[in-house]
Structures are given as C-alpha cells and as structure tokens.
Amino acid sequence: MRKRVAVLISGRGSNLQALLDAQQDAYEIALVVSNIPNAAGLDRARAAGVEAIALDHKPYGQNRQAFERDLDALLVQRSIEIVALAGFMRVLTPFFVRAWANRLVNIHPSLLPKYPGTKTHQRALDAGESEHGCTVHMVVEEVDAGEILGQARMPILPGDTAETLAERVLTLEHELYPRCLAQLACTRS
Fold it and tell me: Which of 77, 93, 113, 161 is the most buried (most CB within 10 A)?
C-alpha cells in the first residue's frame, strides 16, 4: 500500500516535480500545500492531477502555531501519512514537528551537518570546500539537524559561483529526494 504524501512548498516546485515524476509503488503525492497563494508549484500539482491548496500564512500574522494547526488539520483530514518539505520557506514550530515526528522530511542544499540554514552555496565557496551537495533528512525541532536519510555529492569546480552551484545541486536534489522518500515510505509505518 503506497503511503499518502503531502508536499509543502513556497515557490516554483521543482523538487515537487521531481517527486511527482518519480512516483512509484512506495508513495503517492496526494496533496500539495503552499503558504504562498500564487506559488507556481501549485500549478504543477494541478497539472499532475494532485489536489493543490494555498494556505496563506499572512492572515495569521505572527501566530505561526495557529497557521500550523490549520495546516495539521488539513493534512489529517486527507489521511496524509508523510509530509515532505520541498522549498517550504518557513521554520516549523515545535507543535508541528512533534505532531509529525518521524513522518516529516526535508531536502537541504548542503552536506549536513555542514551549513545548516540559508546561503549554503556561498558559505561552501567562502570556506574553500572541494565538494558540495545536498541532504535529505528527518525534521526535528533544531533546524537541519535531524537524522540523515541520504546525501548526494559533487565537486566544486574552478569558477563556480553560488548560482552555478545552486543549479548543479538542484539537479542532485531531483535525483536524491524521490529515492529517499521512497525508502522512508517503505520503512515508516
């Protein structure tokens, strides 16, 4: 039985597209939710025949937990089993992380534990790293600190910029995320 997955996005949804394209026996993308009403990823989901909902965070103001309680209710109503973050640009509160413990996964553009947070590509360049990549990990209350499910690596090339690295890492993300999500779906009950 395939696990029902909800993908949370905030933007164009390129990782969402990779997950949709790679669907297999382990999981099905059953719902896509964006906190940005006009996110292009919502159109990608609809084009694939997946329910796509905008749940705008702005009306909630500073009350992040109220937003997440409504998000949680939406996921529970649709019998979601795993939540995959794919460019969801909000740090989740302990309430949501605990509610979805061991069923909440993220893709991050660095080789964790190096470079949690933002501006990972520039930070890798500034540190003189010889390689860079991406990590799929479980989400815990500490940002980008959960169990690592998989990583993909590539060399940093002479002349690389943060932009060229971002583009090349994104290609790795599109290969790694579906594989790790399928493994998670097979191992989590």
Answer: 93
